[in-house]
Amino acid sequence: MINVLRQFVRLLKLCISGKGGKTSLVHLAAVIALQLGGIYFTIRLVTWTSAFYGALEKVDAKAAIWQIWIFAGIVAANSARSLMAEYLQKMLHIRWRKSLTEAALGSWFADRAYWRLTQGDCPRDIDNPDQRIADDCGLFVKGILDEGIELITKIVGIFSYLVLLWGLSTFALSFSLFGFDVSIPRYMVWAAFIYVALSSGLTHLLGRPLKSLFYTQQKREGDFRFAMARIRQSADEIALMGGENVERSGLDRRFDGIAQNWRKLAGREFLLGCFTFPYSHTVLRIPLFVALPGFLAGSIALGGLMQIAMAFSNVVTTLSWFIFSYKPLSNLVAASSRLDGFLAATEAVRARPSGIVQEASAGELHVRDLKLRTPEGRELLSIPRLDIRPGETVWLRGQSGLGKTTLLKAMAGGWDHGDGRIEMPAASKLFLSQKAYFPQADIFGAVAYPASAEAFAQQDLRRAIEAVGFGDSDMLRLEDAAEGHPLVLSGLSGGELQRLALARALVLKPGWLFLDEATSALDEAAEAELLAMLRKHLPATTFVIVSHRNPRTLGTMRVVNLEPKAEAANENPVLQFA
After folding, report:
1. Angle at which helices 187-207 and 326-351 pack, to 10 degrees?
2. 350: which residues sit within 8 A by CB, 6+ positions away?
3. Contacts of 253 (CB under 8 A, 6+ apart)
4. CA 358 to CA 578: how far, in whole Å?
5. Do residues 341 and 103 make contact, with C-beta atoms less than 8 angstroms apart?
6. Tens-digit pLDDT profile for residues 338-374
7. Do 403 and 370 meet the contact criterion of CB atoms below 8 Å apart?
8. Which of 351, 328, 337 is nearest to 11 (CA)?
9. What is the pLDDT of residues 383-400, one digit of tens each?
10. Which of 31-40, 187-196, 233-242 has the highest mean pLDDT?
11. How far apart are CA 190 and CA 200, in angstroms?
12. pLDDT category, 571, cuts 50, 70, 90?
């Protein structure tokens, strides 16, 4: 319970700390005030009940008709209050969800936590961060507003209803037990607490597993959606290999997991409903039965019976908030646990110490005593010393699996596992990998990435695209298709995607260009032509290349051979120059 409250407080602080946080508190106060106004109308209805049934008992038609008009006025005013409170609460919901989503996204992107979370030593239960941000933020805000405001209203209302019930239940319950005369004064008040306490205990006993079942359901739903998204993104590869049966089988297994947990969830909700359903449908009638002894003893009239029954019902209903809200509370706790775990993981990965020291240099790139390891601790690559001067072309050559890509990740500041020091120049840098990435944008936004297309003249962007091999007809095809679908680039071949990615270098003109198999999908002639074009248009740029093929046509080039060298206890790669 303490851990759950801690999660609620932490997430609420993020909701309030966003833009307009103080305004949102005023907004919240207005919603609570409107909801508390419902207590007045409830008490007013209790008073009206006595007057209306009293008029019926006296067969006073005029008084009864007047009470009907009063009832209509109460309902109209209460409806206006309720609708306004609901509208303001929805506006507060989207404001808080925006603040919480911005905080979650900020934590995910800060210090490239989204990248570091993909490394092997991160918590295994941090799955589907997209779902946690998109769904859990909304679930938490809705749950905390719905249940939190209702709880505040119930706490305030219970005192008002108890005062009313205390004043009405002036008679005692008298009976004999084992030869002793027993008299319980104001028994209606004590009966309400005993009745709800026993019911709450039984509700928790029946519904306790719901939290873990909701948690698992959200996880499996997210896994299923993610699997389908991967199929959509890799449609070409799956179709070419004829992998439909395997993919369908995998989706079927994931959905079977959803269905299996859903059955458990439905079964548990059924058991809980076996108690809560009859409870909720009898809570308005039980008070009448409890008050009958006083009516039969002549202590109260019919109007008083109906009034005290309604007051008792309000007390019991208010005290039963936990019972009626048990299912949404379980869902709220599950969502907050997932969201809090995600935020904690992003903070932990950002705070994780790295043995690789990143420093800025005046102009050259320096690597000193660098040892790269896998997240499990296995040593990949050892580089005692490496210096690259501005304007050089350096080819980092070595066998597959040696750690060349990991070396570039370390230079980019995205690899924490290892020791040593890397001094990176302050000049602009661009890293292009084998798998070209493009944002959801039109062709010009894709080529300008990670900068904004608005920062460049459209004519310059067009020339860069043409320079990497796209003619006028290709440009028209890309532009027309992009107008209808932002993911049109996913229909291009691997070589075409790599060409477009290389166009970024022509647009951004980085001081340092790192290419990690960025031309592997091109044939040797096309690769040579593109690299020559890049060197021609970027004469001052430093090229650092990881490639299995000799990157010809780049002019004078220094080759750094990264080769493993067997030693007594293990194998450590050593650096050689050619």
Report:
1. 50
2. 110, 111, 113, 116
3. none
4. 27
5. no
6. 888 889 888 888 888 788 898 998 889 999 999 998 8
7. no
8. 337
9. 999 999 999 999 999 888
10. 31-40
11. 16
12. very low
Which amino acid is located at 127 in the chain? D
Those residues with Cβ within 8 angstroms of residue 546's Cβ, 6 or more apart along the chain or in another chain: 396, 404, 405, 407, 408, 514, 515, 516, 517
User: What's the one-letter identity of residue 372?
Assistant: L
Query: DSSP labels for 498-551?
Result: HHHHHHHHHHH--SEEEEESTTTTS-HHHHHHHHHHHHHH-TT-EEEEE-SS--
pLDDT tens column, 299-313 = 666 666 666 777 777
| pLDDT, position 529 | 93
Helix or strand (DSSP H, E) at 397: strand 393-398
Distance of alpha carbon 446 from alpha carbon 490, whole angstroms? 12
Instruction: Tell me the two tokens of residue 92.
Output: 């507060």
State how far the Cα of 297 lies from the Cα of 57, in Å rounded to an integer.
18
Give the pTM. 0.72
**Which two tokens mark 100?**
């919480």
More confident residue, 529 or 486: 529
Token pair listed for 396: 């980092």
Helix, coil or strand: residue 423:
strand
- Which amino acid would we find at residue 371? K
- Is residue 389 a contact partner of residue 425, using CB atoms and an 8 Å limit? no
Composition of the chain by helix, strand, coil, percent to 5: 65, 15, 20
Instruction: Pull the structure tokens for residue 203.
Output: 């509700």
Residue 97 has pLDDT above 50, yes or no: yes
Distance CA 100, CA 121 (A): 27
Residue among 337, 340, 341, 324 nearest 146 (CA)? 324
